[in-house]
Amino acid sequence: MKLPDKSIAMEEVVAQIPDGATVLVGGFGVPGTPFALLRELARQGQRDLVLVKNDANEAGMGIDHLIAGGQVRKLIVTHLGLNANAIAAMNEGRMEVEFCAQGILAERIRAGGAGLGAILTDIGIDTELAQGKQVVEMNGRPMLVEPALRGDVALVHAARADCFGNLAYAATARNFNPLMAMAATRVIAETEELLPLGGIDPDAAESPGAFIDHVVKLDEISEEYGIVRR
Amino acid sequence: MSDARSRMVARAAREIAPGMVVNLGIGLPTKVVNHLPADFPVCLHSENGLTGIGPTLPPERADRNLIDAGGAYVSTIPGSAFFDSAVSFALVRSGRLDLTLLGAFEVAQNGDLANWKIPGKFSPGAGGAIELAQKARRVVVMTTHCDRKGNPKLLETCSLPLTAKARVARIYTDMAVVDVTAQGFALVELAEGISETEIREATGAPLALPQGDIPRF
After folding, report:
1. What is the DSSP pairing of strand A135-138 with strand B176-181?
2. Which of A82, A106, A127 sits opposite B130 (nearest CB)?
3. Contact residues, chain A, for B50 at CB < 8 Å
4. What is the DSSP track for B88-141?
5. E-assigned strands of chain B?
6. Residue A59: inside a domain, yes or no?
7. Which domain holds residue A185?
8. Using alpha carbons only, how large is chain A's radius of gyration in Å?
């Protein structure tokens, strides 16, 4: 018996993302952002996308290419303060923005990846983030119902992958990637290093390949992945 | 940094007790580490997925995959751990986080905190601030006592959207150390050179004074 090979070319796999797709995108700042997949998505030009990401990257980087190209209908995000273009798109009504508390975004995605319907939490219950949300009482305390979040597609970045899609991450490039890698109908992982089967020790497979649909090897680590000099 | 600000940062560093798990907000709070001895036993948490934050590194020595939540290139120390965002906030929400030091736009006399949104001007999203402010075991604010226009930031009630309700225990400013008590703001210490009149005028709510001499920092 042998595990299947899921490696695929960048252009071919991104072409499978339709207009209107909900796309989960890994990364917190630069680390863990799948810059190459995002560039190809910007090049192919799919439209009406709903993006789910911790942050909006910085101007001229990552999902900013999609926002600048008018490809993003809605962004679900925790913070976009480092990207003036994203703030302008929000303020001018070119892009709908839904803010979510950071750990609650993580848990909504985790719930989506775990086949659950929602989570209950008191986070944000005294803030305007609670507006419009269903409240239920649990153990005598009011809790917000935060719906699970799944993507049609997830774009994640791994440091290392084998061709079955077992993934390993580097340092703070984990962030939302392991959660998103479980939470979409079609999970696409780009990887800095693509190894043969057995190349990732079973103890080191942080995302099991059974969750992953496609693996794309990066030809190069472009400048976007590098150190940001401020 | 002005002298008053550096004394505030040095004073706030004494909040951190040996053995604590601590999250330092972006900006001034991250600077308190400069006032801790190198061998001080504390676990610093960064919400992007790191416990055991080591020294900040210059670009030429940085690891492109290793930043803190503010985007600064940091390092690991012996015993550091990496984890995903769900684990990171599980730590925050479950009571494992002993202390957070946060910035503020406004703090109310009941401990309400507003630090994430100025409607119509600045609404970048709260990131992890709501969970930090709502769930850290102790929430301490570091801020200038007044905003850039000289308006008080310590108020009877917050006018801006809240980050968390009634969670701030203490405020360190460039003018004073102020506790939030059941009766409202109580002055703990005054910065050198600040008079009782000045601190009352700079505070937008009643301020109880300590008995006897006011300690200075």
Report:
1. unpaired
2. A127
3. 171-172
4. HHHHHHTT---EEEE--SEEETT--EE-S-BTTTB----TTHHHHHHHSSEEEE
5. 21-24, 43-46, 50-54, 75-82, 99-102, 106-108, 113-114, 138-142, 154-155, 168-172, 176-181, 184-190, 207-208
6. yes
7. 20-117+149-219
8. 18
The CATH number given to whatever domain includes residue A113 is: 3.40.1080.10
Q: Which amino acid is at B30?
A: T
Q: By the 8 A CB rule, do B99 and B24 touch?
A: no
Inside any domain, residue A14: no
pLDDT, tens only, A75-116: 999 999 999 999 999 999 999 999 999 999 999 999 999 999
Domain boundaries of chain B, sorted by first residue: 3-208
Domain assignment present for residue A185? The answer is yes
- DSSP class of residue B149? T
Report the number of distinct structural domains present in chain A.
1
The C-alpha atoms of residue A7 and residue A4 are separated, in whole angstroms, by 9
Please name the amino acid found at residue A209: G
Active-site residue set of B: 47
Q: To the nearest whole angstrom, how far is the Cα of A123 from the nearest Cα of chain B?
A: 6
Q: Among all chains, which residue has been given the structure tokens 């703070």?
A: A172
The answer to whether position A9 is within a domain reads no
CA-based nearest residue to A80, from A103, A68, A66, A64: A64
Tell me: pLDDT of B28 over 90. no
Rounded Cα–Cα distance for residues A86 and A92 (Å): 10
Q: Buried (b) or exposed (e) across A11-44, using 16+ Cβ within 10 A?
A: eebbeebeeebbbbbbbbbbbbbbbbbbbbbbee
Two tokens, residue A190: 């780009």
Q: How far apart are CA A127 and CA B127, in angstroms?
A: 14
Is the ipTM above a cut-off of 0.95? yes
Q: Are B130 and A123 in contact (CB under 8 A)?
A: yes
Q: Which residues of B touch A211 (CB under 8 A)?
A: none
Q: Are A187 and A214 in contact (CB under 8 A)?
A: yes
Task: Give A106-161 pLDDT, tens digit per residue.
Answer: 999 999 999 999 999 999 999 999 999 999 999 999 999 999 999 999 999 999 99
Counted across chains A and B, CB pairs separated by less than 8 A come out at: 135
Residues 6+ apart with CB under 8 A from A73: A20, A47, A48, A49, A50, A95, A96
Alpha helix segments (H runs only) across chain A: 10-14, 35-44, 64-68, 84-91, 102-113, 177-180
Highest CATH level, class, for B3-208: alpha beta
